[in-house]
Specification:
Elements: H1 8-15, E1 17-19, H2 23-34, E2 42-47, E3 58-59, H3 62-65, E4 73-79, E5 81-84, E6 93-96, H4 98-107, E7 112-115, E8 118-122, E9 124-126
Antiparallel strand pairs: 1-9, 2-3, 2-4, 4-8, 5-6, 7-8
Amino acid sequence: MIKPYDGLSRILDEKRLVPIMNNTKWNELIAAMLSLPQIEPHVRIKYLHEDVAPKHYAPIWWEQLEHTGLANIEWLEIKAMKETSTGLLAPTLQADYTDLFQEVLDKYGIPHEVEGEIFRIMGYQQLQ
């Protein structure tokens, strides 16, 4: 496992952030998502050392997430809708995992926000 980013304390002080997730909660999320092999959600992850949030969502390998250093995750977004193209002339198929994601996050008490089809899991929160 990669150690938390070396300047973690400095970044947290500069951005005035406090943790709201811990390794236990991240590992519960990872285990829950791995227990749902039928879905392959697309995610975006914003790491503390990044100045700009990523623009695109991509598939994730949950078992590899811990290697990035869970303490380095500022937030993680999961798209609840999965679109699958079935061909050039055929309509795109959509699968909605909103209820499933909500159930998992509620079961483990994982703090999150929902906006439309996006679930945002905050690793840190800014001090007021």
